[in-house]
Design a protein that fits this description.
The chain has 9 helices and 14 strands. The protein has 326 residues and is an alpha+beta fold. Strand 7 and strand 8 form a beta hairpin. The longest helix is centred in the last third of the chain and has 22 residues. It starts with a helix and ends in a 7-residue tail after the last strand. 41% of the residues are buried.
Length: 326
């Protein structure tokens, strides 16, 4: 009920009577009073005035389970929220939860990670009070070879969520990064559990740089945070909830064909690699070409000098002008 009270107070932006809260949630005045006091202890500044009711004062965001759930406007994505002040890795916790029966849509969120990971085992700096770290649990009825497309669905959702919430021109660097003004603000890591041709679960981990912070020297020139590029305070909970809303929408479109056909036009519009020189690092051999966008299976189309087109499924793609590759 605490999340619902928060949502109503935030939506109203004015005093809400205790009687209205009682009637809305079917509880006693004492239950409302206890819930409000618990929210106050969590850090919310809620004013209570006789004959007027309760008022939620605007202040620095209280980032936690109730704040996140109070902002969710989805049917299933991001529901429920499991929030941790600190975790080794949201992906590791999400996999454990999925093994123990967590349903599709469950969201694991941490304020800090002590063992955050990126692609190919790279570490992800995860300080407290600064960024967004979450992992979404999915249990799709898909062939395992289609699961990799879910990373692209999430990439589109994150880019759109940032654009809606912050007004910044977030772009996608295939396959799993979000960049603004040529610098990385978000990375993703998708993992799954498969038995033969059956997917037990897929987890998609997302890390977004939000607050101003110092980056390690080796990445300082290529990393950025939303507060810096947007020039304003960004609500972590609002952004996370917005991303869940965008993901739910795009996921439903994806399931209609089990391909990216319905998302192709918008994804390619936001693809910073498109029509740019790329270098493909692949175990079979490195080559260069011009990126021509993705196809319906999420493969990057790279046009070689002789005009032939390679479909890149795996491997690291570097883009001219991005991340120091010039």
């Amino acid at each position: 009920m605490k999340a619902e009270i928060l949502a109503l107070l935030r939506e109203r932006g004015d005093y809400v009577s205790g009687q209205e809260l009682c009637e809305r949630f079917g509880v006693s005045r004492t239950a409302v009073w206890k819930a409000v006091n618990q929210l106050k202890k969590e850090g919310y500044r809620i004013e209570a005035v006789n004959n007027r009711g309760y008022f939620l004062a605007k202040e620095e965001e209280v980032y936690g389970k109730n704040e996140l759930e109070s902002r969710m406007n989805t049917r299933w994505a991001g529901r429920p929220v499991s929030f941790y002040e600190s975790l080794g890795s949201t992906n590791l916790q999400a996999k454990l939860d999925a093994e123990n029966g967590a349903a599709q849509g469950a969201l694991v969120v941490a304020d800090m990670q002590t063992a955050g990971r990126g692609r190919r085992g790279k570490s992800w700096c995860s300080p407290a009070g600064k960024n967004i770290y979450f992992t979404l649990i999915l249990k799709p009825e898909l062939a395992p070879d289609k699961a990799s497309m879910l990373t692209l669905v999430m990439g589109l959702a994150v880019a759109e969520g940032i654009r809606r919430t912050c007004g910044a021109d977030a772009m996608i660097k295939w396959p799993n990064d979000i960049v603004i003004d040529g610098r990385k603000v978000c990375g993703m890591l998708t993992e799954m559990s498969v038995e033969r041709e059956f997917i037990h679960y897929v987890v998609i981990g997302v890390g977004i740089n939000v607050r101003a912070q110092e980056f390690a020297p080796e990445i300082a020139s290529m990393a950025a945070c939303l507060q810096e590029v947007c020039g304003k305070r960004v609500s972590r909970a609002e952004l996370a909830a917005c991303i869940m809303e965008e993901f739910e929408k795009y996921y439903d479109i994806f399931l209609e064909t089990e391909e990216l056909t319905g998302l192709l036009e918008r994804y390619n519009e936001l693809l910073i690699n498109r029509d740019r020189q790329v270098r493909v690092l692949d175990p079979a051999g490195e080559f260069q070409g011009i990126s021509r966008g993705i196809d319906s299976r999420g493969e990057l189309l790279v046009e070689r000098e002789d005009g032939s087109v390679e479909r890149v499924y795996a491997g690291e793609v570097s883009v001219r002008g991005i991340y120091g590759y010039t």
